[in-house]
Amino acid sequence: MATESITLTQPDDWHVHLRDGEMLHQVAGYTARQFGRAIIMPNLPTPVTTVAMASAYRQRILAATQAYPEFKPLMTAYLTDTIGPQELISGHQQGVFTAAKLYPANATTNSSFGVSDIKKIYPVLEAMQKIGMPLLVHGEVVSNEIDIFDREAVFIDEIMQPLLRDLPELKVVFEHITTQDAADFVVSQSANIAATITVHHLQINRNHMLVGGIKPHLYCLPVAKREIHRLALRKAATSGSQKFFLGTDTAPHAIGDKESACGCAGIFSAPHALENYAQVFEEEGALENLEAFASLNGPAFYGLPVNQKKITLVKENQQIPSTFGQQALLVSPYKAGETLAWRLLSEQ
């Protein structure tokens, strides 16, 4: 008998781009209506590198999500070549910085201030290891010699494995993994290594983006890979393993910035994230594991309590609007115009 509804502990989103200014006010509510908490990425045009900047950004997010007063943004620090350990330690102790984010320089949107050589931040990472502060990793090697579809696998060999040999107790989230290599690597490691998986990497491969004409709204970084990798990610996400949890990597860009000669990387999946995840888990015959992936594994890794509220998804078709937002900031959502089989019904 088909499942007609599912009630879950309210999930969290462990990887979110909310932007700032008018775009923040336009998109933040879509995350806050579904998730109790969200890990907020710090890659604003001026990156969030200090406690004061993170505190101010958190206040702007709270102002943009007043309709959902229980929503809690969890702030992160943007690691640079010159950042000092004391700022991170202080921010973590004050409850401002939940984690710190490693962007290899020029790997993705607003990453030009990122780390050029991981050895330069070893003193910072050693301090994070000591206080149990998680490191969130955009796991790609940036080099003209490395094929864009191989960046993640090369990162594992050249950066991640040496890092974990040097700092074996560092808590690391390998974010938005896209390959079987990454899924297998995370499973092979100790309990202090985990990974987030986006819904779009569970649903699309590179053919969806490239066959029949380039689809700029399916272009993201890390880029979607071969079908073998998508299937491996679905197996990992739905397996029940505590090492994998929900992180949408929702990343809005105005339509004009996506549909341009140099289209921005990012997929805006926030409005219907849970419905799409539910569809994946149903297709894999694993709805019983959705709550662990969406609601339990992330808090366990971060050492946070699970949310007390409940949410209910019902088996009811809905059509995704073609656009969200206003005027120059109009955004095309993930799966625009398509029909979903699930609907987020209510909070309890």
Task: Please describe the structure with a list of short key phrases separated by commas or semicolons.
single chain; 348 residues; alpha/beta; 8-stranded parallel β-sheet; 3-stranded antiparallel β-sheet; 12 helices; globular
- Helicity level, as a percent range? 25-40%
Give the structural class. Answer: alpha/beta
The Cα radius of gyration reads 19 Å
Q: How much strand content do the residues show?
A: 15-25%
- SSE run: EEHEHEHEHEHEHEHHHEHHHEE
Report strand order across the widest sheet. 2-3-4-5-6-7-8-9
Sketch the major β-sheet: 8 strands, parallel
Q: What distance separates the N and C termini?
A: 25 Å
Shape: globular
- Unreliable stretches covering 5 or more consecutive residues: none
Average pLDDT, rounded to a whole number, is 96
Would you give an account of this structure?
The chain is built from 12 helices and 11 strands. It has helices at 21-32, 51-64, 85-93, 122-131, 151-166, 180-188, 199-203, 206-210, 227-237, 255-258, 273-283, 290-302, and strands at residues 5-9, 13-16, 37-40, 72-78, 97-102, 135-137, 172-174, 193-197, 244-246, 310-319, 339-347. Strand 6 (135-137), helix 5 and strand 7 (172-174) form a beta-alpha-beta unit. It is globular, with a radius of gyration of 19 Å. The relative contact order is 0.15.
